[in-house]
Write a structure and sequence with these properties.
This protein is an alpha/beta fold and about 210 residues long. The chain contains nine helices and five strands.
Length: about 210
Amino acid sequence: MILADLYEKSIRIESYVSSNDCRACGFHSRTEFLDRLRSGKVNPSQCKMEKIRFLSLLWAVRPDEILPEVEVLQFPSPGPTGLFPINRPEKDSPILVSGNSKLTVEVLTAVLSTTLSPFWYLVVNTDGHTVDMAMVYKVLTAERIVQILLREKADQFAPQSTLFLPGFAESISTDLAEQSGRAVTVGPVCAAELPLFFGEIDWKVA
């Protein structure tokens, strides 16, 4: 089986690690701490770091702990589209935008299963393409996102929510903000980075 590239190498973990993180686990340098974390030699029971923080860093340096193994798709594999509630979201809970490839849905669902925080999950029709290929074929567009926001009555359920685009879709962020009238933030390329990206307050570990 040929495994799909989930872009784990795109995570720039160094930008998230502080000297406080290193000292909490008994290390004096960021490099030493990350090397030990990657090799599985940091014992969380001996670390004074908050559990949520520790797990977020662990998943970022060892994405296999959180990401499922998925086979590379030879053809597009479309799934359902819609606005789906995760953990009882409210009117201002973040809206995570993604495509309707079954591979993408499987990966993002696995990551979302690790949090108790509320989100809206907006699955856009990308003709079954993963986000990277959807950008190549220009099927993940501001127009398509706005269309599904209107269809799903997002202004009624989540009128104050910010749209969070996957990193590959950064090029459409300005158009999306203009067309949707919403705040738009560009998130990470790899789903395993989401816990760190949102932080301890907005990503409560299940």
